Amino acid sequence: MQRSRRLPNALLGLLGGAIAIVAWWAAVTLPGGADGFVAQFSPLHALAALPGLVADEHLLSHVAASLRRVAVSLGWALVVGVPLGFALGRSKRFETTFSPTLQFLRMISPLSWMPIAVMSLGIGDRAVYFLLTFAAVWPLSMSTAAGVAHIDRRWVQLGESLAATRLEMLWHVYVPGVASHVLTGVRLAIGILWIVLVPAEMLGVSSGLGYLVLDARDRLAYGDLTAVVLTIGALGFALDCAARAARKFVGGMPGQD
User: Fold this and answer.
1) Which of 4, 121, 203, 208 is the most exposed place for a label (fewest CB within 10 A)?
2) Domain boundary assignment for the chain
3) How far apart, in Å, do the first and last CA atoms of the chain sit?
């Protein structure tokens, strides 16, 4: 029964995508005609340009560069955000002391740091890593803090009654208890990373999807530009699906809510 439901849902999703493509084609083609300037951004031009971008490995190398930056920045965000969230959720005093400052920083747009990042770190990957990491830290820390706060206190009391060490408590109680929340934060962080990535890659780097958007614009290759935009959307959707699948898998394991 569940599989039979998934198939119609998938078909409905494909139908919605087809309707969106038709609406996109109509919006850029009908007002000025098939030979108009805006028609260069049609899905037909994008699909025609995509094989050429892939064939010469031009697109794939930029995709690899962008995915590398996302992976590195997500790794740094995990290193910073998970311990920070654990401290916020575990210690009321720590949360009371630092939560206002962290909430203030969280509300600053990562892109507003672009001039400071360039002047401090220079043009290149380091500035991009800083912006992406800053953007991804907050959903990870907030989700981790929520996970720690919602751990069943009976498990904590049981571990303490068995004289478990701090390391044993961390590994057998807290890590399983917050795993699904951390993965929820990872999914949110990936979404934010993917949004910030494109403008961040316009900071003078010579690779990446953001750079490729500017390059296609400067070459007046509007079909290529639209194809890159479609690639950005497809990759972001794939990353979100992977994060959602990991969250469901962990959430279905024994001991998870």
Assistant:
1) 4
2) 41-251
3) 24
